[in-house]
Amino acid sequence: MSFGPPPAGFGPATPPPSVPPATTPPPSAPPAPAAPAWTAPTAIEQDLFEAKSREDWAAYFDILADCRLYFEIRRDGADAEPSKTIPVFGHDPRVAGGRIWAVYTEGMLPVPDPHRVLDWQSLGWFARVWEPSDPAMIVVNPGSPCEAFLPSAPPHSAAWSQHKAKGPLNRTRVSTLRLGGPLEGPVAQGLACGALLIVWHGLPWNAMAYHGNGYKAERALLREWWGVTSREEWQVQQSALLDPDGGNPVWEFALGLRRTIARDFGGHVDTAYWRDAVARVLRGRAGGETVITPDGVTTTPGAPEAEIEARIKGVQHLVGRITRYEARFRADGILDGNRFVSSVDAWNFGRASAMARWGLGSRYCSLKEAESAVVEAGRASARSYKSWQDFAAGYILGRCLHFDDEEFGEWYTDMVDVHQVLMSEPDSPWLTVPFK
Fold first, then answer.
1. What is d(CA 142, CA 353) in angstroms, rounded to the nearest whole number?
2. Is 118 helix (H, G, I), strand (E, B) or coil?
3. N or C, which terminus of the chain has less Cβ within 10 Å?
4. Model pTM score
5. Do 378 and 406 meet the contact criterion of CB atoms below 8 Å apart?
6. Residue ranges of the chain with pLDDT lower than 70?
7. Distance from C-alpha of 298 to C-alpha of 301, rounded to nearest angstrom
8. Whole-angstrom Cα distance, residue 138 to residue 311?
9. Where are the domains of the chain?
10. What is the DSSP code string of 382-398?
11. How far apart are CA 190 and CA 430, in angstroms?
12. Distance CA 358, CA 59 (A)
């Protein structure tokens, strides 16, 4: 199938008259050096570049339709009325009148700036919301080798606005920044700790300069799920997630007791023995505990017998939940053989890696602060686990104990899907970044 020239206004703009035409060098002149090959930041930009080089505009539009298109918005407007989107238009002297609507794919985003925030939409949205007062030209990735000009006014916009995505734009997939994101070292390892969440949404796993789902969506996420509406509240949540003693004490007691039994008896722990051990330990504490305080040795008062028995029953029920989840994990490839989950610290540390980026996307912290938190999340994870497989099982168990209640619904199945992607895709950080 052959493709004719692009629609009017699409493709490279005509240079302004002040640019002199190219001339042919005399025969005696040495050949000009070859232009260096362009390394596209992600597969999206590479695909756009190749489609543009072939003048395959239908393919170019298909690629654009299947990815997020980011654009600058007014921060004061977004803060005042989050439901409204007020774009910030740009200027390009190559376009008649100079006004353009600049849009960017995920590999071409600027470093987060306190005064410059972005939102994103699908390709068709731009045609639907266009008004006569808006710029007549959309410029994709201005100044890059995959740049293109899309006339935004009808009827020309019909050439690109009808192209559709292959699926949800936030679907699970591994996306890696080949440029602009770490591929190795402590920052990459810390970013990979948040991969279950980041890859689940189809965002680049190693984007430390994070824009995520856009300024408004990132703020809404923190407000609705975490109650975070300020820098101070973000700091409290970030610190809590990085606290090595910040996990659920009941979960950690049960798992810690099993670790002790496994260490003392050489590996496998019978579930019935584990339950009995729970009862022995908790009844042994019924008379109170002796602790050392600044005032000396103190014995804490014991709890009533009925309360102790209720605790025993609750922890034994938890033991049953954990063993049933682990059986399902083995069936779904999250755990191998007779291995078990050693700790659910990963549930906090994985979210800490993501929280650092959510804070940056919401402009509640700086890039330097976010990077420091990501590195600490990686270090804390390496102290608690031996491998990405162990880390993943701890994270997924923590998520299920918190949300799923043994329904094995989306809280679980979503993680099974992203776990399979992370353990199989060649570009996955869990296959390319050492855990320690």
1. 31
2. strand
3. N
4. 0.88
5. no
6. 1-36, 287-302
7. 10
8. 63
9. 41-169
10. HHH-SSHHHHHHHHHHH
11. 11
12. 33
